[in-house]
């Protein structure tokens, strides 16, 4: 064999060996990156998904997926179903956040296996077999709920004056006007519908207690947080802490996200 043929043979062998190495490397399975965490935000009564407008960009800036549920407010079951649909669309872990009435909603919907933590923002937190009314009856009626407007179908709304005076007194007047015209009427009978199994009994929970709340007695919020053994953040805020103190509320949600990793 001449030196030229030996050289050509060596080149062919090297190319063949290299091809085998590349093939082997290509066949090595790659580990899929885990799906990103999603924060599912659930609004309360007299509100809609825009309640979270100031919190959403703060969470997105941290690389989180964010979904704001639009609750029909027609029954506990309907609101739970709307929330469950939002949860089902996510591929990764979910942090479930509820404001006000939606605390009752996430208490039921949070039993989904995808939900890793619960965050209650000025929110009700009933136990097994309890309704929202079961909680409210043990505390003085807050001024914001003294004179709700009731229509012929049994749905409640708040007057523009009550929104500005009691619901959202610590946001600019232009913002409280928007809240008033976009508020979701809530069926009064919703508050008598009972949770079957309270998710906070099996999921870690966080609670934002709004000390200046005139829609839910602050003591009710504090007592509920204690019952859940929740991580508590108290804010000198009205009922709409996510609008008047969005950074503080976002920080609590981010704390829950980190703890759930």
Describe it.
- This protein is of the alpha/beta class and 261 residues long.
- The strands form two sheets. It has a six-stranded parallel β-sheet with strand order 2-1-3-4-8-9, with helices on both faces. The chain has a three-stranded antiparallel β-sheet with strand order 5-6-7, with no helix packed on it.
- Helix 3 packs across helix 4 and helix 6 packs across helix 7.
- It is globular.
Number of domains: 2
Q: Describe the biggest sheet? A: 6 strands, parallel
SSE topology string: HEHEHEHEHEEHHEEHEHH
Strand order, sheet with most strands: 2-1-3-4-8-9
Question: What portion of residues belong to β-strands?
Answer: 15-25%
Counting copies of identical and different chains, the oligomeric state is single chain
Please identify the structural class as seen in this structure.
alpha/beta
Please state the overall shape, judged from the principal axes of the Cα atoms.
Answer: globular
| Average pLDDT number | 91
End-to-end distance, in Å? 65 Å
Rg from alpha-carbon coordinates? 26 Å
CATH topology of the largest domain: Rossmann fold
Q: Can you tell me the residue ranges where pLDDT is under 50 for at least 5 consecutive residues?
A: 1-12, 14-30
- Count the strands? 9
């Amino acid at each position: 064999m001449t030196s030229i043929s030996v050289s050509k043979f060596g080149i062919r062998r090297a190319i063949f060996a290299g091809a085998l190495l590349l093939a082997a490397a290509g066949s090595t399975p790659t580990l899929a990156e885990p799906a990103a965490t999603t924060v599912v935000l659930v609004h309360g009564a007299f509100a809609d998904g825009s309640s979270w407008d100031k919190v959403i960009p703060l969470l997105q800036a941290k690389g989180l997926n964010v979904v704001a549920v639009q609750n029909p407010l027609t029954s506990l079951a309907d609101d739970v179903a709307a929330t469950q649909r939002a949860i089902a669309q996510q591929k990764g872990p979910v942090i479930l956040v509820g404001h006000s009435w939606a605390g009752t909603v996430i208490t039921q919907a949070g039993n989904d296996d995808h939900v890793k933590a619960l965050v209650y923002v000025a929110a009700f937190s009933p136990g097994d077999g309890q309704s929202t009314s079961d909680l409210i009856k043990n505390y003085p009626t807050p001024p914001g709920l003294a004179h709700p407007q009731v229509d012929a179908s049994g749905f409640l709304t708040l007057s523009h004056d009550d929104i500005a005076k009691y619901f959202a007194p610590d946001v600019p007047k232009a913002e409280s006007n928007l809240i008033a015209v976009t508020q979701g009427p809530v069926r009064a009978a919703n508050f008598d519908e009972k949770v079957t199994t309270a998710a906070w009994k099996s999921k870690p929970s966080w609670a934002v207690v709004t000390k200046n709340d005139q829609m839910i007695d602050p003591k009710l919020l504090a007592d509920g947080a204690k019952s859940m053994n929740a991580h508590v953040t108290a804010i000198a805020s009205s009922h709409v802490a996510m609008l008047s103190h969005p950074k503080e509320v976002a920080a609590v949600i981010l704390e829950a996200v980190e703890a759930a990793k």
